[in-house]
User: Fold these one by one.
Assistant:
Number 1:
Amino acid sequence: MMNSTEQHKPVIGFSCGDINGIGLELIVKAVSDTRLLDLCTPLIFASTKVINYFKKSVQTEGSFNFQSVKELNRITPRQVNVFNCWEEDIAVNPGQLTDLGGEYAIKSLTAAVTALKERRIHGLVTAPIHKKNTQSPGFDFTGHTPYLKHMFDAKDVLMLMAADNMRVGLVTEHVPLAEAAKQVTKAAILSKLTILKDSLIRDFGIDKPKIAVLGVNPHAGDDGLLGKEEQEIIKPAIAEFKQKNNVILIGPFSADAFFARGMHEKFDAVLAMYHDQGLIPFKSLAHGEGVNYTAGLPVVRTSPDHGTAFDIAGKNQADHASFVNAIFQCIEISRKRAIYAENNRNPLKKMSSALLARVEDEKIELE
């Protein structure tokens, strides 16, 4: 029988990513640490045959055992569970970009996201997929973030990179640089700022967030000499958002000087305008332990901050630090959301309780 502590541990799902990349190696290494079972119940979406292949080929510090399940209501606590998304034998070719690798990565992902939508799991950690071999008529998305936005019918989402020393959100994501500047609009900035602020409060427990906004041009436009976007788009967006929200919002900053001076550590989050502007400093300064979080969804999804790494796949060289952090972040955000929901379920009742407690304290002091 499951005790009350086990019943309250979150079930965290894992999509396997490209079967020829490092995803399953990372998963096996991460869940082999049995201390993880004290925090959650892992559920891997793959097949027992593929898992057994990696169990034999991956060197782990701890022992790796798992329970095969065919029904999501029969998950075993205090054990790693594998949900069979397919039964057939498939060839695993580490380091090779194949159609098969992408096909089964999507089988795993769609099964995991279905479970997430049905609230069979409390959070999802996605192993890396490759954009080239996952494209099909049934999956016409450039990555996890737009797919999740579509599946949960979200008006907008935010790619938010998180580490112990910084958080970086992006206005534009996986678009060509020539298109990125066109997509930096006042409406886009306001939308991303709204998601970022709400996420910092609800998902990270920060009551009054302090957010920095970067410019889009070199030197943040140099007062219009190097571009007008800062003056015509970014500054008006910042002013409007500050007027309507209880946040500390400063910018636009010149991106190079901002990170070079360590200013990212003085803010709760940074909003970058395009992919490389935010991701290059993040990956350089997060020391290989960063996490990609999709903010703005009604569910919790995290992933490591790297790709399939075909160059080291099958060589037992993959560092699972970022993946482990993605698991911890998924668990922690799920916990913070539950606390936030409880605290905001009946604010009038809680205010009354606080007033009564204060009155009682004052009575005691008077006596």
Number 2:
Amino acid sequence: MDTIKDFLPFLIPLAIAQFVLLGFTIRHILTHERYKRGTRVLWLVVAIVGMEFIGPILYFILGKED
């Protein structure tokens, strides 16, 4: 039976990438004034609640204004 120790080499880099992406997304949301869809508050909620890569990816696909 597999233990959590067997998955740590995969989980630790994944968790680090997740938090780096979330941090980059939140910084981008807070420093930009315009979005394709939605408001700053909406995108902050989506990014934080959908933290498992989904929220930040949705922001960069649907909300980020160039």
Number 3:
Amino acid sequence: MDESRYMSGFGNEFSTEALPGALPRRGNSPQKAAYGLYAEQLSGTAFTAPRHANRRSWLYRIRPAAVQEPYELCDIAPRWLSHFDEVPTPPNPLRWDPLPLPGPAAQVDFIDGMTTMGGNAGCAVHIYTANRSMGTRYFHDADGELLIVPQHGRLHIATEFGVIDIEPQEIALIPRGVRFRVDLPDGAARGYVCENYGAHLRLPDLGVMGSNGLAHPRDFLTPVATYEDVEGHFEMVAKFQGRLWKAPIGHSPLDVVAWHGSGAPCKYDLRQFNVMGSISYDHPDPSINLVLHAPSSTPGVDTLDFAVFAPRVLAMQDTFRPPWFHRNIAGEFMGLVHGVYDAKAEGFLPGGASLHNPMIGHGPDTGTFEKASTHDTSRPDYVRDTMAIMFETPVMIQTTRFALESPQRQRQYHECWMGMAKHFDPARR
């Protein structure tokens, strides 16, 4: 990775220019910007949001974003949805095999290959499968910010703010409204996307944990300014009020020569996550694995949590080390980016997914339970070669028709618990 292409920090007030002197040297925007550029502000929060939560950036660009033809409704990406009431969501644990990658005969880019698995008023969860770069097509989402988690294949994301390259076990966060293009350096690609409709995702407060746990702000990388000064026939695609729209545009919209502000895209390497955990007894709540969260107006309750289950050491003694059996008020959508998930013996594959909605019982499968119940806890377990992620919400994640009727759905998923033996004996303690 070329570190010179990025600036370190999360939510910082950044300044960057691709040409010397493109940024104004005074606090105000000048009457005439340098190099004949146009000044444009992109506001991601209310103007009066508290300073620590305010997200806005000043862009100095070759043409304003208003320079394009009108949008028209289009029918591309028919499986990218923002409504989740097509079919009733069953109160069952759900799991899916990986969605297949497009074959050579198909030409599917990041937008065309987006498939919605479910969602609610706070977020939507998608899986993308693609084999073609976007090329002359650009995109922005007016409905929410996008958390992109590649599982197979690298992504080259060219944005208005600069270029972000991510690979599996890294993530990218694209703010609402930011225009970008996704190219595929490795050909076919697959991954997870969470579309956040609520407050901005941010780093959690650490409380009694102290100052050094979980994800560090310095490990989040924001791109330096670069620009495309290209004219031709391009297409601008927008997601607006749950529908996709397209418009012709005669130039690349990634023409920002300089920018400063706090509302910018960024990337993060999940392998940098500093795992916290128990070294005495019991498995901690999954909130100990929180990377980013979107707070609600109720203290302690988020509209969206993004957690990661990274390599770690389990050293708790005289206890059951895997996650216990549980029923939560939360909807939990899990994906496996790499390796093996330690709480499942089989069936949960890289690129696959599972969904456990509120008050649906779940936990370790039969094989994992039996192994952990007799395990020698005097020795630590080194959980290596794994990376699982979870999108968690405080309400049910409604599933789409595609998710329920997909041939990748494991309709016998519940059988992984049906072998749990009855050990109860009132005569034996």
Number 4:
Amino acid sequence: MQESTLLALESLKEALDNSPLIKMCNQREKEMESDPAFSILMQKKKEAEETFILANKTKQGLEEARQRLKEVAKQLDALPSVVLYEEAYKKVESLYKKIDKILLSPYRL
């Protein structure tokens, strides 16, 4: 039985690897990560996060740092490559949740 379970899981993994949804998500992720605007905004977000953490510790310029972080995050979320990736990711996440429900929910307490 254990061997047949492993074979079934290997088949599931292969099917997922070949799934058009997952392939699309992986492609969109590559496109997003190769987008120069994405790299720039990610760097700005990292800097804004560091500034926010420092401002939170020192309690100086906290509101300005918070606003800057929100602004950069909003710009990043609106980037077309990020929007396309998020759409694809949500579909894959939904698929994974369905698989989780089918396979694991009967065994949860």
